[in-house]
Amino acid sequence: MLPGARWRGRGFVRCEFTEADLRGLDVSGCTFDHCDFTRADLGEAVFRSSAFRSCTFHRTTLAGASWTGCSLLGSTLTECGLRSVTLTDCDLTLAVIAGSVLRGLDLSGLRLREASLIGADLRTANLRDSDLTGARLAEARLADADLRGARLDATALRTADLTGAHVDVDTAIAFAAAHGLVVH
């Protein structure tokens, strides 16, 4: 459809990008409200300072895509290939990423407040200094993930599989307290 196109400062509302070929798309300063990217190809796309509010990404190809300074507030990313995606200084507050494979990704410093990461595979992911306040992490796999400096609620500490996760002292104490231990 539009491989390699450049979009600057545009606004899109309720647009259908279903099955669109947008490989290598270069986007800066755009807003997307309630847009549907189901089965679209966004491989190698570059997104800078753009907002994707309540957008749908279902079975969307995102291999090699780069997101910098973007907001994905309330967006849904299901059955997407996210393993080679780069996310820098992004806000995924209220995003639904449940069941996704995020293994080994650098998610450090991201805002994932109240995001649904239920059943997500976050093994070996770097979540240093990320804000996971209110995130739903039931059955999320965080083995060998780096959670140092991350902000987590007690509920998340009780429901996620944190086996082998790397945590700082504050998180270790919160984990112990969440599991009923009394730390002196």
Write down the Rg. Answer: 17 Å
Strand tally is 12
Q: Strand-residue fraction?
A: 15-25%
Q: What is the tally of helical segments?
A: 2
Question: Average pLDDT across residues?
Answer: 93
Give the helix/strand class: mainly beta
Distance between the terminal alpha carbons, to the nearest Å? 62 Å
Across the major sheet, the strand order is 1-3-5-8-10
Question: Regions with pLDDT < 50 over 5+ consecutive residues?
Answer: none
Q: What is the succession of H and E elements?
A: EEEEEEEEEEEEHH
- Determine the fraction of residues in helical runs and give it as a percent range: under 10%
Verbal overview:
- This protein is mainly β and about 180 residues long.
- Helix content is about 10%, strand content about 20%.
- The chain is built from two helices and twelve strands.
- The strands form four sheets. The protein has a five-stranded parallel beta sheet, with no helix packed on it.
- The mean pLDDT is about 95.
Features of the shown structure:
three-stranded parallel sheet, mainly beta, elongated, five-stranded parallel sheet, 184 residues, single chain
